[in-house]
Write a structure and sequence with these properties.
This protein is α+β, with helices and mostly antiparallel strands and 363 residues long. Helix content is 33%, strand content 17%. It folds into three domains: 3-103 and 215-246, Orthogonal Bundle (Butyryl-Coa Dehydrogenase, subunit A, domain 1), CATH 1.10.540; 117-208, Butyryl-CoA Dehydrogenase, subunit A, domain 2; 261-305, no CATH class. The chain has eleven helices and nine strands.
Length: 363
């Protein structure tokens, strides 16, 4: 068993041992609209928030399939707990992978407990350049678990003609957490807003939203917002399944491990001997870009026999050729929904109707 598999097995056993504790905490979270502090302490003891943090900073990164298994096991116990684990891993892993060396040393202090970073990387704030950094202001919504975080992550646009999207990491004490999470679904996730008002953020605690990671290996070979959001596909249906189980529904049998890795899992395959970069291949055997969005596209039917390399489907009897030319013809062709879109749609369904956008995601 490799290191990732051993960590997965240990976590699954620990979660099952603490099932009653976590279930009771979930009931409290529903009433308090936030996970109890004691539960967050238990999750820290389990190391549940550092499964996507670079190993060089003290994390224990799992391969994507093992991470999905752990997330689903949490969701069978309590949906809000699983959501907190998902968001905590995304925020902390993003800070660990993308902060410059000086900033990483400030957040991940050697010899001290690992930090918990949560927030919303969408550019909902503004940052005025100042000597050595930015003065950041704004308000960020759906910041799941922000009241328990050590550091908060928030996206902003740099003031200026380019308006470059940036991400800031700030101590939670410098932010104001707004108690406005009153919803029907995921009520226990504590997805409050937080606000910054002219907070100085040193340049070493910021990074470009489209920048490349500074560390972390093949798992981090995507843009930061893609890395932060790539657990939504397993997370949303896992939470929905967990809610169904808690209401008396049957627990679904775990799906068999697929022998062929998904595009995300392929990032852990050996590097190319010629370029040294990870081999990213799609289901049709073509080389894919480092974008998770591009990699997933080949699993939506566009690579089926008969489809062209441009991604357009040949005309059929039920879809006659368009009279338009160029890209407009391709845009009118029928397209199959991507797997993650179906997963998010399933996971966001509520008894009372459709709820708000899933909190904690990287928009």
């Amino acid at each position: 068993m490799d290191d990732s598999g051993a960590i997965r097995a240990g976590l699954l056993a620990a979660i099952r041992d603490r099932r009653k504790e976590l279930e009771a905490a979930g009931e409290r979270a529903e009433a308090e609209r936030n996970l109890p502090s004691g539960t967050m302490g238990t999750l820290r003891e389990l190391g549940a928030f550092w499964l996507k943090t670079p190993a060089e900073l003290g994390g224990t990164p799992l391969d994507p399939l093992d991470f999905c298994d752990v997330l689903e096991e949490f969701a069978y116990t309590d949906g809000a707990t699983a959501w907190a684990v998902m968001v905590g891993n995304g925020g902390t892993g993003t800070a660990g992978g993308w902060l410059p060396d000086a900033g990483a040393r400030r957040v991940f202090v050697p010899g001290r407990p690992l930090p918990l970073v949560m927030g919303t990387p969408g550019p909902r704030g503004t940052g005025r350049p100042s000597a050595g950094g930015y003065l950041v202001s704004g308000q960020w919504s759906f910041a799941s678990g922000c009241g328990h975080a050590d550091w908060l992550i928030g996206g902003f646009r740099s003031a200026g003609p380019d308006g470059r999207p940036m991400v800031a990491v700030v101590p939670r004490e410098q932010a104001t957490v707004i108690d406005n999470w009153r919803v029907a679904g995921l009520r226990g996730s504590g997805s409050f807003d937080f606000r910054l008002e002219e907070v100085f953020v040193p340049a070493e605690l910021t990074f470009g939203r489209a920048a490349s990671a500074c560390r972390g290996g093949a798992l981090f070979n995507v843009e930061a917002h893609v890395f932060l959001s790539n657990e939504l596909p397993p997370g949303s249906p896992a939470c929905a399944t967990g809610c169904s189980t808690r209401r008396g529904g049957p627990r679904l049998s775990p799906s068999p491990r697929r022998p062929t890795p998904t595009p995300t899992a392929r990032r852990h395959l050996p590097s190319s001997p010629r370029t040294g970069s990870p081999r990213l291949t799609t289901c049709c055997g073509r080389r894919a870009s480092t974008s998770l969005r591009t990699s997933t596209r080949c699993c939506t039917g566009r690579c089926l026999p008969g489809s062209s390399s441009s991604g357009r489907r040949p005309p059929t009897a039920s879809s006659p050729p368009s009279s338009l030319s160029g890209s407009s013809a391709g845009s009118s062709a029928r397209r199959t929904a991507r797997p993650w879109q179906a997963a998010v749609a399933f996971g966001s369904r509520r008894d009372q109707g459709r709820g708000p956008s899933p909190p904690g995601g990287g928009d």
